[in-house]
Amino acid sequence: MSSIIKLEGVTKVYGKSAAALDGVYFDVAPGEFVCVVGQSGSGKTTLAKLLIAEEKPTEGKILIGDWDITKIKERDIPLLRRQIGVIFQDFKLLRKKTVFENIAFALEVAGSPWERIRKVVPEVMEIVGLHGKGGRYPQELSGGEQQRVVVARSLVHTPKIIVADEPTG
Q1: Other residues' Cβ atoms within 10 Å of the Cβ of residue 129
Q2: CA geometry: angle at 83 spanning 78 and 84, to 5°?
Q3: Cβ neighbours of 50 (radius 10 Å)
């Protein structure tokens, strides 16, 4: 079975000697659910940033499907990120936009037509239990509801992979 994610000897060093990751190897098969656990500062967030090409490894190779993202061109990063749903611990919700608008924003920046946005946003809101809350603003929601907005936003492109940094935070 082929891997959907494969890391081959991935090292990430910050500064001159602070290794966040050191020679990491692993494979994730399609449909597999993987949790990476560790103490604060053990490299989990760095790994997430490498998987979405927000950062590049110091050494090694990262494959997403058949795509070597260690050699990804800047112009291809948005295409990669539409295939990976990302949930970071800092929600990055837009305070002046409603729940509906926050979720729709991910589709808008990708150039989705309004008809698709109008169809998909209510569907993902229903999936995450936010039905009827589309007109509320982030500050009117509980922390758990804000987290569900972020999850909904990560689902709008029907990603092949979901990367969640501190998903229970």
Answers
A1: 13
A2: 95
A3: 24
Per-residue tokens: 139:
């500050």
Give the angle 103-108-90 at the CA atoms, nearest 5°: 40
DSSP 2-32: --SEEEEEEEEEETTTEEEEEEEEEEE-TT-
**Which residues have a Cβ under 8 Å from the Cβ of 142 and sit 6 or more positions away?**
none
**Verdict on whether the full-model pTM lies above 0.85:** no
Q: Which secondary-structure segment (H or E) carries 96?
A: none
Sign of the alpha-carbon dihedral angle for 130, 98, 155, 150: negative
CA angle 85, 89, 92 (to 5 degrees): 75
In the DSSP assignment, the letter for residue 69 is G
Query: CA-based angle 121:127:132, to the nearest 5?
Result: 65
Q: What are the tens digits of pLDDT across the range 75-124?
A: 988 888 888 888 877 778 999 999 999 999 999 988 999 999 999 999 99
Q: Is the distance from CB of 11 to CB of 47 less than 8 angstroms? A: no
Number of H helices and E strands in the chain, helices first, is 5, 6
HSE of 107, CA atoms in CB hemisphere, 13 A: 23
